[in-house]
Amino acid sequence: MYCETPIPGLGTLWISSPAEGATTISADGCADIILRDDQLIVAGPSTRWLLARGSEQHPTVGLRFSPGLAGAGLGIDAFELRDRILPAQGLLPTALAERGERALRALLGAAESPAARGPQEGPTSGAPDLSRAAESRYAGRLRDAARAVPRELALHSEARRLRWVDEVRAAALRAEPLPRLARRLGYSERQLRRRMLQTFGYGYASLRRVLRAERARDLILRGAPLATAASLAGYADQSHMAREFGRVIGAAPAQLAAASGSSGA
């Protein structure tokens, strides 16, 4: 089971149940701090799909920063972390790492409590029960934790100062050309790229690529024909979508259409 709840102006708090093996994680342009197997790790801003493992014994919990908030959220140059998963120790500022681990550990403790697990039937392996029957209780605890995280991490005020980040994300969604965006924000193209590398961890073209692939994926999952999804998402044609989609999502468009029950025709 996977459960998440938004933290306005910051990102998303999430938790996933124990799982065996690695999972394909599509690129979303975000960075996460994650508590997994009693270790705090950092997943840098993603511009391509990757394989990530969860814990086989305990839930994995994390805070995902919205695109553009990685630099402010993690207190370092986001470009250094792009498409990497690294231990937080020695990477993040010590105070931030301690606050992040404390907040995530509190959520993990709530998830592993008997109240969160609910009634048990038959023998158990000792791992929390994250079945659908417990999901509503679990989601409530996640929402409670989400209200406390911004105070714990002291990041809300920093995130609010990055107003230009929202402008960049909105411009990328509507495929605004980079020169026009830079002029509107009062930067040269080089200045805007430098600021994006520090805060997003990647440039404007990468942001557009990730958002375009996400849009196409959502359309395909809703049953749109592949050619229609390519056009509405902003690709030049279906071949263009196929080339970018595999790198960002980790599957071919036709594979996703088949898995969702759509013909993709």
UniProtKB/TrEMBL annotation:
<keyword id="KW-0804">Transcription</keyword>
<keyword id="KW-0238">DNA-binding</keyword>
<feature type="region of interest" description="Disordered">
    <location>
        <begin position="111"/>
        <end position="131"/>
    </location>
</feature>
<dbReference type="Pfam" id="PF12833">
    <property type="entry name" value="HTH_18"/>
</dbReference>
<keyword id="KW-0805">Transcription regulation</keyword>
<dbReference type="InterPro" id="IPR018060">
    <property type="entry name" value="HTH_AraC"/>
</dbReference>
<protein>
    <submittedName>
        <fullName>Helix-turn-helix domain-containing protein</fullName>
    </submittedName>
</protein>
<dbReference type="InterPro" id="IPR050204">
    <property type="entry name" value="AraC_XylS_family_regulators"/>
</dbReference>
<feature type="domain" description="HTH araC/xylS-type">
    <location>
        <begin position="159"/>
        <end position="259"/>
    </location>
</feature>
